[in-house]
Amino acid sequence: MPGGYLAATTAAAVVPARAQMATTLGFHIILACLGIALPTIVLLAEGIGLRRKDETALLLARRWSQAMAVLVAVGAVTGTVLSFELGLLWPGLMRQYGPVLGFPFGVEGLFFFLEAIFAGIYLWGWRRLPGWAHFWSGVPIAASGILGAMAVIAVNSWMNQPGGFTQSGTTITSVSPWAVFFSRAAAYEMPHMILAAYMVAGFTVAGVYAAGILRGRRDRYHYAGFSLGFVPAAILTPVQLVVGDTAARSIAADQPVKFASMEYVSATSRQVPEWLAGVYVNGKVYGGIKVPDLDSLLVGFGPGTKVTGWDIAPPAQRPPAAWLIHLCFDAMVGLGSLLLLLGLWALWAWWRQRRLPAPRLFWLCGAVSGLAAIAAMECGWVVTEVGRQPWVVYGLLTTSAAATRNGGVVATLTLVIIMYLVLGAATIAILLMLSRRWRRGESSEAAVPYGPPVDEPPAAGAAGPGPGRP
Amino acid sequence: MAADTVGAILLAAVTLYAVLGGADFGGGLWDLLAGTTAGGREPRALIDETITPVWEANHVWLVFDLVIFWTAFPHAFAAVMTTAALPLWLALAGIVVRGAGFAFRKELTTLAAQRLAGAAFAFSSLLTPFFMGTVVGAIAAGAIPADSDRASTAAWTSATAILTGLLFVAACAYLAAVYLTSEASRRGNGPLRAYFARRAIAAGVVAGALSLAALATLHDASRLFYDRLTGRAVPLVIAAGACGLLVVALLAAALLRGRRPRGLRLVAAAGVAAVIWGWGVAQYPVLLPGTGVTLSNAGAPHQTLVAVIVIFIIAALVIGPSFALLYRLQGRRLLGEAGQGQWPAAGQGEE
Ligand code: HDD
Ligand code: HEM
Ligand code: HEM
């Protein structure tokens, strides 16, 4: 390799580079979830609206489209940041493994095109495209959201379980693209992530309307908005837990050191206890509940199952901060279980009374369910990414060898944090503003940038109290 | 062979980004220069209307370009991303601010907030092409070392790089003004057509002058490259000049006779494409001039190159018609504001 490019010296920039990657990914992934799953929910509303001539459902679909136009734009720019960062922060990764990762990323590019093109048609076609034609222009967005997510997750799965290529030294000599795309970890990461996206989008939509209902806006509009998000998300939650459980068992087999950190298994043994919460410091777990034998039971369905501990790897090859990985794992599982209970509560009320539960507590939980799903999803990513350390490509390339040697990463990190805070705040502010305007029954847009205050033609929705008024 | 094909694919994808995405940046530029709130109302409205439904799709070409670059030529990619890190970070910041500013402005209602978002959109439309141009200039001038592991300011602040940056800005402005002239004609708006036609001529002249100046600096900075541009790439250089002159002539005719110009957009885009392909032909087969990094030894195995070719073919088959549909609907002005349809008789279906 020229100039010892990948020499194992530690790059000074690796810590801020990781922090920057985590910040930008953690932000993008929320928009990505909405980009993957929101189109389906909007289409659900539009389909119901068209079929049953239900004006409320159509109105919801139209308004969600307007919010989506903002979200998709922010998703696109934050995604572009990630593409640049792969080169700017991790030149060592791309230099060596770019040709391996290229295929899934290229497939992702195809689906981005479809998504962006049809979003251009669907989002901006409400006014003049006829009903069902408009509906069908949205279907490719929903489909390419799912397929595009599979492609990006293929990359992440491959980083966890690399395969499908040969190398001599640091040069890649052959690649089998499909083996890269469907690596061992893809089997559970792809469904787990896509389900997470549907949970995040569904519960977030439900949360918005639950908050409205808590404020006394108990009209059909709000109940419909809540149900269109809540029902699909609640149905998928149990599936998600089964997939997550499968993922955990695969990780126990394939990435034992990550699993050991998730479960505080310091030494390989049988009859391993399960720690619920608790902080691991220097060989001791503080706080937390210890359930004897449960970890062995979960891994191999019997208390005698041997679980590999992190002692199999030398200290330098163990992830840092086992406590973080463990607590994030528990938070994900805990939040997922709570969301399952929420769904069961609704199911029970429906079964007994043919209606959604009345207690205020249900709607309070509903209002925060979106945040809970987002938190579970972010925690899952911390488990995956921090748990893979010190490797960026498991067992093959360390994160510090992949990092840029340029200075100034602290500066870009600072700027990124400031910029994303502003971007996040502005996005939320704009969405709130849209909803206030809808509630006042106003139509939504200034016709002209920088126009003097525009008089909305009354035909554009201002005729009378809009549904969704308090 | 496969490597050459992928090189051509990369150049084609870059061309598409330049002629489609570039025009969207140019639109931002004219928004910036449209003057006062009241006076700039009409041109800003046209710019907004023509960019809105398409800019995201056009933007994907950039992502696609990056993916092809790192997949097929990872060594060159890592070298460029390392050496030119600073202008790339700045271009990236511009991309974020521009996209967000544009999307937010549409939803804002108070004039002050619109102005802020609009200024962010317009100003970053200037910065992004400039910094991207400096990176391309640095590559062309041979300032990117093959096994670079440090950023270099000198690389992208050479005369060639700066001139290329300015050229990118001018070219974006030129394309946008030409497209907007056609859009104004199609709407039968004579004054607006003249407004953009004048600006297109001005931007075209500036872009032409900057191209010649950049070429002149290459004479000293990268002699081999210069010789090839004036040697084997000369047909393309001439084609670029001819397209530029033709566009200016068409625009002048439209201004003087008030007739609707035809074929303008295609000729203008072809001119820009000719410049890009002239660059590619002059460099071939070297990826980073001044180094030994060529299309065929930049780090990707054969199967990867084949995969890129297959993806591009699928893209052409699937994405091409989809884009055609998008542009057609937009051309027929069937794409308006998000979520604003005929609203249902409000109040119904409430209880
Ligand atoms: C709504 C979100 C959500 C919920 C409720 C759950 N998960 Fe999860 N989990 C994610 C969202 C998520 C994710 C999208 O954040 C991750 C990160 C990487 C991935 O593929 O999915 C993830 C990763 C992830 C991993 C690590 C995968 C890896 O390192 O490759 C495991 C072992 C689990 N999950 C297990 C579970 C279990 C046992 C759950 C419940 C019983 C659970 N997850 C609920
Ligand atoms: C396709 C998907 C993804 C890819 C290709 C990817 C890639 C990377 C890379 C290259 C790094 C730096 C090297 C490393 O620390 O291992 C990283 C770190 C990180 N990423 Fe991911 N990532 C993906 C998804 C995500 C998502 C969605 C999140 C959301 C929160 C995330 C969270 C993190 C975190 C927390 C780190 C820092 C790890 C640490 O510092 O220990 N990743 N990722
Ligand atoms: C390193 C990892 C990642 C990179 C390089 C990346 C890159 C990108 C890029 C460039 C875009 C913009 C495309 C456009 O212009 O429209 C984008 C958008 C998107 N990304 Fe990511 N992304 C990454 C991680 C993820 C992950 C983990 C997911 C989810 C599984 C994801 C799902 C999406 C989706 C659905 C969109 C569409 C935007 C929207 O509708 O909001 N991305 N991404």
Could you characterize what this model shows?
The complex is a heterodimer of chains A (470) and B (351). With 470 residues, chain A is mainly α. Chain A is built from 13 helices and eight strands. Chain A is globular and about 65 Å long. In chain A, 55% of the residues are buried. Chain B is an all-alpha fold and 351 residues long. Chain B has helices at 2-32, 41-51, 55-72, 74-83, 85-107, 111-140, 153-156, 159-186, 190-221, 223-229, 234-257, 264-283, 302-331. Chain B starts with a helix and ends in a 20-residue tail after the last helix. The model of chain B is unreliable at 338-351 (pLDDT under 50). Chains A and B meet through helix 2, helix 3, strand 2 and helix 13 of A and helix 2, helix 3, helix 4, helix 5 and helix 6 of B. The structure holds CIS-heme D hydroxychlorin gamma-spirolactone (HDD) and protoporphyrin IX containing FE (2 copies).
